[in-house]
Design goal:
By secondary structure, the chain is of the alpha+beta class. The chain is built from 3 helices and 9 strands. It has a single domain, classed as Sandwich (Immunoglobulin-like), CATH 2.60.40. Strands 8-7-1-4-9 form a 5-stranded mixed sheet, covered by helices on one side. A 4-stranded antiparallel sheet has the order 3-2-5-6, with no helix packed on it. The longest helix has 16 residues. The N and C termini lie far apart (53 Å).
């Protein structure tokens, strides 16, 4: 019995200390994105972020735009990219529930989407929720920017 407790304790420590990693941008690129400048008139800016909640600490969840994966988020990170103005589908992997949203994006404007984890037994899903510009700016101010594929 003692051996079982030791093994379970060891596994719990590994799970709690494991940290998923994603490539981060430079501090200059991070600071520049946090200025929230308007994108060019023919493009829209997209911020997708995941807050610093304890749950899902070791989970990395990918973000796709129009079916193409552009990067992944972990706890306390955000990504920023420009997209052509128009309708776009933003997706994240999930074992249950809503895992994508469609946005009709106007040129010259920024859009903010929060990735929310939904914890299950043995796995976690995610959903995407569009948030207001003021809420997105507040939330992103303390997060770190990840590199995107474009």
């Amino acid at each position: 019995m003692r051996k079982l407790v030791q093994v379970v304790s060891f596994i719990m420590v590994l799970l709690l200390t494991a940290c998923a990693r994603v490539p981060l941008t430079t501090s200059e690129q991070d600071a520049q994105a946090k200025q929230f400048n308007a994108p060019p008139k023919d493009q829209a800016g997209l911020y997708v972020y995941r807050e610093k909640h304890f749950g899902g600490y070791a989970l990395r969840k990918s973000i796709s735009i129009d079916g193409e994966e552009i990067g992944s988020l972990v706890r306390g990170t955000f990504l920023y990219t420009h997209l052509p103005a128009g309708k776009h589908q933003i997706s994240t992997y999930s074992q249950f529930g809503k895992n994508h949203i469609e946005l009709s994006m106007e040129g010259g404007k920024n859009y903010f989407v929060r990735q929310k984890l939904k914890m299950g037994i043995g796995f976690a899903g995610a959903e995407l929720v569009e948030v207001s510009e003021s809420q997105g700016k507040r939330d992103i101010s303390s997060l770190k920017r990840v590199k995107t594929r474009y």
